[in-house]
Amino acid sequence: MLTLTEEDRSILGGEFGPMAARAMKILVRYGEATGATEFVSIRSAHIDGCLYHGPSSIDFAQSFVKLGGLVRVPTTLNVAAADVTHPEWHCGDPSTLNEQKKLTDFYTQIGCIPSLTCAPYQRLVRPQFGDHIAWAESNAIVFANSILGARTDRYGDFADLCAALTGRVPLVGLHRDENRHPELLVTVPKVSETKLPRDLYFGATGYLLGLCAKGKIPYVRGLPEDASEDELKALGAAGASSGSLALFHAEHLTPETHDINASHLPHLEFSSDELGAVIDDHCSAKTGDPVAAICLGTPHYSKDEFIRLSDTIIGRKKAPSVDFYVSTSREIAEHINTHSRFAPLREFGVRLIVDTCTYLAPVVDRRDGYILTTSAKYAHYGPGNLNRRIALMTLERCINAAVAGKVAPC
Amino acid sequence: MLIRAQNFTHGNAVGSLIALSAPLSLWGGFDTKSGKIIDQHHPQHGISIAQKIVAMPYARGSSSSSSALLEAARLGNAPAAFIMTRADPILTIGALLADEIYQKKICILVIPQADWCHLGHAKWANILPTGSPKTVDIRVSRI
């Protein structure tokens, strides 16, 4: 039985305006569907519904905007369906650009910050340990829960907006202490024990974790203690693509591992061969095969990842036949575009694509070659979304291919 | 064969049942324009789930799946029902909005894990009221 507080009832009754009232009405039904007994206040929201999927995206947003009002908590926007700042790169349906602009405008009119990034945790202000938040976008959810120790359930489109408009969410799922405990122990081989280079190791591990955890919360033992945020980001994003990974605990790495005794949990052990097979399954390309493009930045590239990329390509130049795209946020792109430290990126011919991701916004025109990526998430969704051949490989091999104009040797 | 299910949205559907042998992300794994599964890693890649009663062990992947479900509902390509062994808030809210905006009913049903084995060979399902809005009975048959 769902019990509403006085605040909840006043939102529902219209004291905070008709938009909040409608959002609360939907949240009550949503809360009932999740078995909630009460609501909890949130500190921020991250909205995924700003990605244009078709006329229904507009119908939904418009049905709220016409009521008038503003979000009640700081609210950021997830990626859009196109980079409206570079219409010349867009090779999908031309109407998407205008419809996307319209949709983004709707959300900014009600007070959302047009961050247009799938990595809101890379912004200056990020959630604190223990904060309740309502984030959508599967990689942001797993990052916030696992690496920041903030608390968000797996919000989908629409629930995220209702949460932002009311500042309230049902106190269920990963908002509750008892639902954040690990349910299985997963031992993974050390990087050095696998045949994988480090930048594929995390994606492969995350991908297998998503497949094997089957929605349960894993406690992962064996990851390198110096794993970076970017590496854990890749792991989480992969697991949220192959499965529904929304929280993982990693021994010595994540903030909620202190009191955990994992020894009594059901135990899974990943082998080096299994991790290798994940990469093989997502890389059918052979040395010498044609390459149309390199696409990095799924999830959005961080400043640290740009530093590594810049240092790796310094003094080199890509083949004119190959496009080289890196997806990131406007905020990070602004930094990269204005600092001389990143001049090698411009000399190499890297295009920074903002607001979106190249696995959903079609920007690669050439159809006769592979799209190469370092992201397991991209390799998972790319083939279905883009109907293209995608191959997952190391950054170094991607860059060598960009220079050679064809798939380079391992 | 009757299976008691928890009902998270609306109660009625009848039609052919497709039991997916792996979970599916509606966004990225399903084409709203054709109603087909486009996830190339999915064992049932290529089949249509439009207006079908879809059984899958649990939902998977993207938070955009609620938008994909709403857009599919607008186009008449949404499944008529989902039968899962675990509740899924993302599909639930997509179904709630499909009703509110387009008056399209999509059942979101959760059955006990132990009953999952009865769905594998089923071809047809009829979702029947029980008297309580919170539950339904699913009658499954092999023809």
TrEMBL record, chain A:
InterPro entries: PMDh-L-like_dom. Residues 3-400 form the Phosphomevalonate dehydratase large subunit-like domain. Keywords: Iron, Lyase. Pfam families: AcnX. It comes from the Bacteria. PANTHER family: DUF521 DOMAIN PROTEIN (AFU_ORTHOLOGUE AFUA_6G00490). This is Aconitase X catalytic domain-containing protein. It comes from Hyphococcus lacteus.
UniProtKB/TrEMBL annotation, chain B:
Residues 24-99 form the Phosphomevalonate dehydratase small subunit-like domain. Keywords: Lyase. The keyword Lyase applies. It comes from the Bacteria. This is DUF126 domain-containing protein. It comes from Hyphococcus lacteus.
